[in-house]
Amino acid sequence: MQIKNIVNEFYSKDISKKILSSIRQKKESGEYLCAFAPYGYLKDKKNKGKIIIDNNVKQVIINIFNWRLKNYSCSNIALKLEQLNIDAPFKYFYKIGILKSSRYANSKWNREAINRILKNDIYIGNLSQGKYTKRVEDNKKQLTVAKNNWIIKENNHEPIIDKETFYKVQAINENIKLRYNKTNYTIEKDDILKGLLKCGCCGKNLTKRVNIKAYESNKINIQNRIICEGRYKVVDKCSFKGIREDIILKTILETVKLNIKLSKDINKIVNFKECNNKINLHKQNLIEEISTIREKIQNIQFKYEKLYNDYLDGILNKRDYIFIKNKYLLEKDNFIKQLNILEQNLKDFETTIINNEFLNNFSMLNDDDILNREILLNLIESITIYSDKSIKIKFKFFKQYEILNEYLLNIGVI
Questions:
Q1: Dist. CA 389–CA 227, nearest whole Å
Q2: What is the three-class DSSP state of 141?
Q3: Quick check: 256 and 365 in contact, CB under 8 A?
Q4: 87 pLDDT tier (thresholds 50, 70, 90)
Q5: What is the pLDDT of residues 66-82, one digit of tens each?
Q6: Strand, helix or coil at 402?
Q7: Residues 6+ positions from 395 with CB-CB distance below 8 Å
Q8: DSSP letter at 350?
Q9: Which of 158, 293, 397, 403 is the most exposed, fewest CB within 10 Å of its CB?
Q10: 48, exposed or middle or buried, with CB in 10 Å at 0-12, 13-18, 19+?
Q11: Burial classification of residue 88, based on how many CB atoms lie within 10 Å of its CB (0-12 exposed, 13-18 middle, 19 or more buried)
């Protein structure tokens, strides 16, 4: 059996190598092996390994490249296409039956779709395949392949865009990229606010974008901005325009410092001799009341046992026994209810005063502590930012502060 398994495994690997080799040969010979052609082309029904121009949308591709030559942004191109009621690629593929799922029926143009078209050299007749790979050992995760390992067949099919236009567009893209990036500059990638920021306009998570502008004087301007991706939608745009990260961090720091001061002020009140005596007296009263109620329950239990013995000895008849027993049980139930309330009050007291999460988490910090991700995740549940740049910070332990404040008022400490 072991030998048979080894032979089968060897046979499987051999077949796999032959299939991969065959696929590579087809790619190198210029056969298009994807399920459907990119927007602007269709798979040739006479030869499935070849693609032909889709004349229905050919002009759309030409317009996209021409608009880019006029320095239209990708977002503006997408908006223009929507305004002209031109179907986005996936919506078009759904209409002509290439895609079957109805989820593509309302697809919209967006800047990513425009960017992909503008970068794709398939429109100048080149067929670039093998850009991605999947491996079993990586759980079939899609991995990017280095460009020098792509399988590129030039002049493979009829082009839609001439090479001069295509490379002018690539130069425009590169210039825009260089305007906002400096490849030899190291960007700090840590984002301590990641996952905490919410858009007050559309409710989506906000993201961090590092803008780096390089000027001719070799001066570099770096700005971290918090943006909402909904802002860049072509339709149903979010009204949030973005805000500098340092403004948010400053607001958070000031608010955290206020809570630190508040927690330390309350600690001073709680530990002040006169207040501390009141707190201890309140706790002692609760403990004594609990002890008294427990004694009463034990006393009723003792009376009940005595009552039962009197009934067995014939001192009490059945009717009197049942009447007195029910009276004891009712009294016992009432005391048990009182005991549960008092024990809960004591537990609440210890949670509210002694182990209060608000005090424990804020009073351990100092004003000169530097905000880091660990501190923020520990203290803050969410940060909502609105289009007018107002900021709402929801702290995790503020409810405990409100309970503590009310409790101290009730027992006469403040």
A1: 12
A2: coil
A3: yes
A4: very high
A5: 999 998 988 889 989 98
A6: helix
A7: 259, 379, 380, 381
A8: I
A9: 158
A10: exposed
A11: buried
